[in-house]
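README: folding subset

This subset contains proteins for which both the sequence and a predicted structure token string are available. Records are stored as plain text. Below is the entry for UTP-glucose-1-phosphate uridylyltransferase (564 residues), shown exactly as it appears on disk.
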Amino acid sequence: MASKAIPSHLRPQAAANGSAEAPRHHGKTESHVTRSSVPAHTSILSHTIDLSLSVDLLFQADDIVTTSTMHELTVAQAFENTSTNIAATQMRNALNSLAETVTDASQKKRFQAETDNFFELFRRYLNDRAKGNTIDWNKINPPAPEQVVPYEKLPNSDAVDFLNKLAVVKLNGGLGTSMGCVGPKSVIEVRDGMSFLDLSVRQIEHLNETYGVNVPFVLMNSFNTDDDTASIIKKYQGHKIDILTFNQSRYPRVIKDSLLPAPKSFQSQLSDWYPPGHGDVFESLYNSGMLDQLLERGVEIIFMSNADNLGAVVDLRILQHMVETKSEYIMELTDKTKADVKGGTIIDYEGKARLLEIAQVPKQYVNEFKSIKKFKYFNTNNIWMNLRAVKRVVEENALQLEIIPNEKSIPADKKGEADLSVLQLETAVGAAIRFFKNAHGVNVPRRRFLPVKTCSDLMLVKSNLYTLSHGQLVIDPSRFGPAPLIKLGSDFKKVAQFQKRIGSIPNIVELDHLTVTGDVNFGRGIVLKGTVIIVATENSTIDIPPGSILENVVVQGSLRILEH
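--- output ---
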């Protein structure tokens, strides 16, 4: 009966003594995982017997278990446990079958390490779902003073000696598709003809030249970005910088209905797989061999950030603070504004610093989570970590990062067929803060958080509000207060649309807020000040004339400038 639940291409060969509780292993050692297969045709029957026995024993064990409510609860719990065990067993069998489709020995070893890690993640997901594991809101408190150190209190000296122990890691697994670009997001041009990658290389090259050091630049790619990145970084061969790369894991998407892997084999289409979020950096550093490679170079600390955060540059004060306090993990936090209310925040949970993401918050407490008064900081995802500590927690299997289930769909092969609903089980690197010794946050200036997620952000970093200095964006000293809030509508979503509609970036040094919706085009030499709102109504167009100065105005309706 159960064999029909597993597609024929994933059915394992029969074997004895199967177990769904296999521990993880890592790529540096031989596997200690017993990948035994549980015969699919016996799993349902055996668990059905277990279910009936467990229910009978519950009723015979104690006369207290007499109410219908308790009866329903025990039956439901036993059924849930049985369902979890069956799903785990079938997933383990399916993963074993996938591993058999890998022909290259070295690839197979790495793939088995990845699938062991994935299975551990999947098993925890099933257990969390069965138990309804949620965070206890009553135990959540704002961080204690010692859990967040103000940047102003850090040592203020050029700790050059510590640079010899540092490597810079950029998360380079994302594509530029959300902004309408092809290939890695890090190659999108952001300023003066330079991409995110160009700017990062220039920053580290300048650091090495200035202090006479050799800080390596490490890229964590995904299977989506690795080939393109390998071609792109060839142009930096003449630069004074060592560029190293490794790949994060490639996990199988999970079919939502059957809880089985979407790929039919190791060679299955890319849409059947996913990179499992930046929380995978620990396992990937280890399994790829990059962690040991860096240790052999004398690297003890890594500074990691998103490739699209232009504010994430090496900071000697934070580096010195980390070394002197013997901290294994530092998370850079910055003050939360109304634009950041959905961002993850640091909390005190049973006396330990912990990251809280909005996805973990019960619905009735979401507004409290968004409160700037209670939760003052949010996570920039600029993380400093001790490399030997990373090795320790991976080898001890100590990391139990909160799982973020992400629902996606795989487009149907044939017209008229329904898309396939799938799950991606992801983790976040910030969630690891509670597994390291003396881990805490540093409340940094906003300038260290300058991400480019949308074309609204792109307009900001391309503007005259910033100048470029050795790959680093520096805000205009005449600017009073934080950077302006810019909201461009859906007509500006793709980079090509953005470039067509804004041929020349307006002067925004005195801008506080800009909202643009509809069919709007900007001429050259425009100056925006204060609060500017431009709304082109449906079936209408607004052309802002060249040289216009807009200050605290609302422009609405239609305005066309025709060439003649």
